[in-house]
Amino acid sequence: MRKWVRVESYSRYKGICMKQKKPYLLAEHPLLHSEVEARHTWSQVATASPGSMALARVSPTASSRSLLCPFSPSVLRPRISPHHQRGFPVAASLSQASPLPSADGDGAVMEATSRRPWRPTCLYFTQGKCTMLNDTMHLDKFNHNLSMDLPVNYSAADKVKPQKFDYFLILDLEGKVEILEFPVVMIDAQTREFVDSFHRFVHPSVMSEQRIREYIEGKYGKFGVDRVWHDTAIPFKEVLQDFEDWIGDHKLWKKEQGGALNSAAFVTCGNWDLKTKVPEQCRVSKIKPPPYFLEWINLKDVYLNFYNSRATGMMTMMRELQMPIVGSHHLGIDDAKNIARVVQHMLADGAVMQITAKRQTPIGEVKFLFKNRIR
Ligand SMILES: [Zn+2]
């Protein structure tokens, strides 16, 4: 049986996973999300963006010899670049495999070249700490423009509805014991465009250094981003100070006024981030929970009420919407980007984002506003 796979010319990140007997998309082409989401045939995708991507029909026998399995250790091993060896900071967020719907047919191997291949995001840059913006090799290797992963399909706009908010702040915390990563992606509610992002790795407050090293190795080592975590992580208290400056710069909040965000709302995938984790981390870090975290939009509840489908997580939503994932699942900034892509898709489909949960005080009981919700 032959399968369809997309192949990017980008270095090693192309292939078909023979272990899983499935074609895998290892590198995303940002210009083609909408077409890929909408249709999955060779001719349509190829016509949609001639010459700008590589798409190949590959038979398993032909591909098994030359292409890598996305789960092979060589792909998952942290990438050490010459910059690293010289002591320069280089960030990497590895592309993770995601399955594409398959189509059967005869498959002669075809390969085109990609002019703008997918690149991992520079995680120093997302935190405002990239010192290599003049280095063309570094710029060539890592993406410094998050909007590349969040393109808007302007042709799919006929169902778009007016929104109550001007901006959505998609937040997806990482860290079970203490928060380790605080990524936010800002989307324009009307145009669905990427506006800005805020990203910090968070240094735990009470954990021992030995424990932190093990924890970070286990969580981020597999993405090859443990080095950048150690280089950049700051305490939660400082993260919130930086975040308040950021929402202040965007005129979404004023420290003197306090209260909720101005014309913006947090969007999370579930209630855990703001119902449980932020108050818990504030207690551990001995800080007062900020007032802007008192209400949020749980995307799962909006998804349930809009599509009438119970999606238990981001991966289910993306599978149901036939959207390939971008980057590494459980790397917070990539998850936030993927949730933002789900938001863009839902807005295009005509969903209206509304607050689904709120509390009166930072530790008060949470009131859920949707009758039909994911528990
Ligand atoms: Zn950089």
UniProtKB/TrEMBL annotation:
Keyword Membrane among record annotations: no
The protein, known as? Exonuclease domain-containing protein
List the Gene3D superfamilies. Answer: Ribonuclease H-like superfamily/Ribonuclease H
Q: Which residues form the Exonuclease domain?
A: 167-352
Sorted alphabetically, the keyword list is: Exonuclease, Hydrolase, Nuclease
Keyword Secreted attached: no
Q: Which CDD domains match?
A: ERI-1_3'hExo_like
GO MF term (any one): 3'-5'-RNA exonuclease activity
What the entry lists under SUPFAM superfamilies is as follows: Ribonuclease H-like (SSF53098)
What species does this protein belong to?
Answer: Oryza brachyantha (malo sina)
